[in-house]
Amino acid sequence: MFDNSVTTGRLTQRERRERAEEALLVGAAELIVAEGPAAVTLARVGERAGYSRGIASHHFGSKQGLLDALVRRAQSGFVPGLADCQPGLERLLALIEGYIRRLGDGDVRAHAFVVLWGAASADGELAALFRERDAALRADVRGDIVAGLADGTVHPDIDPDEITFALFAQLRALALQLPRESTPLDAAHLARTVRELWRRALTS
User: Fold this and answer.
1) Domain count, the chain
2) Do 103 and 182 belong together in one domain?
3) Is 110 exposed, middle or buried (0-12, 13-18, 19+ CB in 10 A)?
4) Closest CA to 172 of 147, 203, 137
5) Residues 171 and 134 sit within 8 Å (Cβ to Cβ)
6) Are 29 and 97 members of one domain?
7) Which among 60, 142, 157, 179 could disulfide-bond with 164, CB atoms 3.0 to 4.6 Å apart, if both were Cys?
8) What positions does the DNA-binding region cover (predicted)?
9) DSSP 82
10) Any idea what DSSP says for residue 89?
11) 48 domain residue, yes or no
12) How much is the CA Rg of the chain, to the nearest whole Å?
């Protein structure tokens, strides 16, 4: 549960708003991980975050608005440092490794993102939230492959669309499967292994 015990007396109005929104998103993520998306109500999120029952409605308007904010915040910067990398093979490999490492780092918002992603296949409203997010990830992957083809670091026989589909499917499958493993895997080791497998696949 988000620690809301620190006094906000000296914070500006903007800082108080940002702090409240952060607490609400963490509270929502904790509920999703513990009980599933159906358990989330604006009132419960407000209480879990240490605020009033009505504050989540004030900040996000609706449950859909809250989930949309959570999904966007979770995916933004999901793999740190990519913004500083030039498009191409090495950036793509860094994305692959960083994405898998992130799945195992214990961050509740990342875990909630994965839970919501899995539930989206049976929930039209959740599916709509992820349509844009999925398209952005696919575009990111494809852009790196095309850049690698252009600079010669990716084998010329590689089909960008085919590989984008295969890589996206693998990342999604890993995201959904890792939390279900009865014996926890070393996500860092797995990330390095998958990275090198893709390096060989894309360059040979």
Assistant:
1) 2
2) yes
3) buried
4) 137
5) no
6) no
7) 142
8) 41-60
9) G
10) H
11) yes
12) 19
Whole-angstrom distance between the N-terminal and C-terminal Cα of the chain?
Answer: 48
- 49 domain-assigned: yes
Q: How many residues does the chain have?
A: 204
Give the C-alpha separation, 162 to 63, whole Å. 36
Lookup result for tokens 């995201």: 175
Main-chain dihedrals φ then ψ at residue 57, nearest 5 degrees: -65, -40
Q: Rounded to an integer, what distance in angstroms lies between the CA atom of residue 172 and that of residue 51?
A: 34
Whether pTM exceeds 0.85? no
Q: What does the pLDDT look like over 27-57, one tens digit per residue?
A: 999 999 999 999 999 999 999 999 998 999 9
Amino acid at 23: A
Q: Which of 23, 46, 73 is the last residue of a domain?
A: 73
* Cα 134 from Cα 127, distance rounded (Å): 10
Q: Are residues 140 and 98 in the same domain?
A: yes
Q: Is 5 domain-assigned?
A: no
* Domain hosting residue 153, numbered range: 77-203
pLDDT reported for residue 103: 83
Cα 151 to Cα 61, 74, 124, 198: the distances in Å are 47, 32, 41, 17
In a domain, 1, yes or no: no
Structure tokens at 22: 């952060």
Q: Which residue has the tokens 């997010």?
A: 133
Task: Locate 36 and state its tokens.
Answer: 């599933």
Which tokens sit at 132?
């844009």
Residue 5 pLDDT grade (very low, low, confident, very high; cuts 50, 70, 90): very low
Token duo for residue 2? 């988000």
Is 156 in the same domain as 124? Answer: yes
